[in-house]
Amino acid sequence: MFTGIIECTGKILAVNANGTNKTFTITAPIVHELKIDQSVSHNGVCLTVESIKNDEYTVTAIDETLKKTNLGNWKTGDEINLERCMLMNGRLDGHIVQGHVDTTAACIDKKSVSGSWEFTFKFDESFAALVIEKGSISVNGTSLTVFNVTREAFTVAIIPYTYEHTNIKSVEPGSTVNIEFDIIGKYLARMAGLK
């Protein structure tokens, strides 16, 4: 379980295919605090630390994950958002994020607005019921608040701190991001659909 408050960014050092899976070697400031078998959110995707050596570690994404997220597009040198799982005795500063990405969305607009930034993303209309005005959403693992919601798009505002300390600064129109919708909204939609 995560909060969507990004701890740091990491850098992809290597990408290796193993059948339909891909193993990623990553370096990041938190490597010395990681443990084997630990869950870490990578651009919003929960992956297990498999090995640690010096200042780098490895994780593997299976075919299903590669198909539903933007991990299949990762390449050497890419910057990714990282968050370790939350502590039960800590504050929940963002919102409840599982690290189970629902889909991807395409950036269709990026603009600077008096020192902050606004990004608009287009997503599959089949998820429309899960996005509400002023609701929470995870974009590449970052907890954000949505506005200007339509049946297939939403906008988020990014403060300078988030812009500088996450990989949102590298997102441009045409970029694909990972999206996880709010878990509470997903449960409510499921319950309503079963009546």
From TrEMBL:
<comment type="pathway">
    <text>Cofactor biosynthesis; riboflavin biosynthesis; riboflavin from 2-hydroxy-3-oxobutyl phosphate and 5-amino-6-(D-ribitylamino)uracil: step 2/2.</text>
</comment>
<dbReference type="GO" id="GO:0004746">
    <property type="term" value="F:riboflavin synthase activity"/>
</dbReference>
<feature type="domain" description="Lumazine-binding">
    <location>
        <begin position="96"/>
        <end position="192"/>
    </location>
</feature>
<feature type="domain" description="Lumazine-binding">
    <location>
        <begin position="1"/>
        <end position="95"/>
    </location>
</feature>
<keyword id="KW-0677">Repeat</keyword>
<feature type="repeat" description="Lumazine-binding">
    <location>
        <begin position="1"/>
        <end position="95"/>
    </location>
</feature>
<feature type="repeat" description="Lumazine-binding">
    <location>
        <begin position="96"/>
        <end position="192"/>
    </location>
</feature>
<dbReference type="InterPro" id="IPR023366">
    <property type="entry name" value="ATP_synth_asu-like_sf"/>
</dbReference>
<dbReference type="InterPro" id="IPR026017">
    <property type="entry name" value="Lumazine-bd_dom"/>
</dbReference>
<dbReference type="InterPro" id="IPR001783">
    <property type="entry name" value="Lumazine-bd"/>
</dbReference>
<comment type="function">
    <text>Catalyzes the dismutation of two molecules of 6,7-dimethyl-8-ribityllumazine, resulting in the formation of riboflavin and 5-amino-6-(D-ribitylamino)uracil.</text>
</comment>
<dbReference type="InterPro" id="IPR017938">
    <property type="entry name" value="Riboflavin_synthase-like_b-brl"/>
</dbReference>
<protein>
    <recommendedName>
        <fullName>Riboflavin synthase</fullName>
        <ecNumber>2.5.1.9</ecNumber>
    </recommendedName>
</protein>
<keyword id="KW-0808">Transferase</keyword>
<keyword id="KW-0686">Riboflavin biosynthesis</keyword>
<dbReference type="Pfam" id="PF00677">
    <property type="entry name" value="Lum_binding"/>
</dbReference>
